[in-house]
Design goal:
- This protein is α+β, with helices and mostly antiparallel strands.
- The chain folds into two domains: 40-104, Antifreeze-like/N-acetylneuraminic acid synthase C-terminal domain (Type Iii Antifreeze Protein Isoform Hplc 12); 113-233, no CATH class.
- The protein is built from three helices and eleven strands, in the order αβββββαββββαββ.
- Strands 5, 6, 7, 8, 9, 10 and 11 form a seven-stranded antiparallel β-sheet that branches. Strands 1-2 form a two-stranded antiparallel sheet.
- The longest helix has 35 residues, at 3-37.
- It is rod-shaped and about 125 Å long.
Length: 235
């Protein structure tokens, strides 16, 4: 082997060593990044907005992969977890599905339907109403014509509360044209068709809607003559 061939072999070996060194460096960087990011796990994001109290199904979600360390502890990683669940509040498109966004779908009795309305947090809930509670629903109305007395009416008796949502801000006009901005809570009831109509009418046209918590075992029947109150009739 002459000197030119020896120099060629040496240069070739140096090139191989340099390539190995570069490969080792890249591998080290990749391993370091993987050690910092961690293994990838499955998560689910919303394909589109989902209104509150809507029953959930797998078609509403898109499967994605993301590093486990970036995933919150309450993230849903298995769509079996949404079986029989409903959205607690509006779920926004692109949001990651988390367990605190969903609750069990309330069980309705035959003849009942699920109805949710916003109730003033200060005058109608005050932190005392919880799922499973029984309440009477009161509404106050202005007189139909000028000079007619205002009235307070018991709209629904013994309404069963299914769910109490999160506190939300009401803007003027969102629930009552004359109401100032305040806080409200969505309350979901299990009601008959007639009581559901009464409740939705009161939410739309009453000045105020209030809930009165009924003690367990209390007789909630109210005679028709006692369902309407006018100040002038109070002797």
């Amino acid at each position: 082997m002459n000197s030119r061939q020896r120099r060629g072999v040496i240069l070739l070996l140096l090139s191989v060593l340099a390539a190995l060194g570069a490969f080792a460096g890249v591998l080290s960087v990749v391993n370091d990044a993987e050690s910092k990011v961690g293994p990838e796990v499955t998560a689910y994001e919303l394909k589109s907005d989902v209104p509150p109290y809507t029953a959930l199904n797998p078609g509403q979600f898109r499967r994605i992969g993301m590093p486990e360390r970036w995933l919150s502890a309450n993230a849903v990683t298995d769509l079996d977890d949404i079986r029989g669940k409903i959205a607690v509040t509006t779920l926004k498109k692109g949001s990651l599905l988390q367990s605190d966004m969903i609750v069990d779908q309330p069980a309705l009795q035959p003849g009942e339907q699920e109805v949710a309305i916003l109730i003033d947090a200060a005058t109608g809930v005050a932190g005392k109403i919880t799922p499973g509670a029984r309440v009477n629903v009161y509404a106050t109305f202005e007189g139909e014509r000028e000079g007619d007395p205002d009235q307070s009416k018991i709209i629904v008796t013994d309404a069963r509360v299914l769910d109490v949502g999160e506190l939300t801000a009401l803007q003027p006009g969102s629930n009552d044209r004359s109401r100032r901005p305040t806080d409200a809570v969505p309350i979901t009831f299990a009601l008959s068709t007639l009581d559901a109509q009464r409740l939705t009418y009161a939410e739309s046209f009453a000045q105020r809607v209030r809930l009165a918590l009924v003690a367990p075992g209390t007789d909630t029947a109210v005679p028709d003559k006692d369902r309407t109150y006018e100040l002038a009739q109070d002797k």
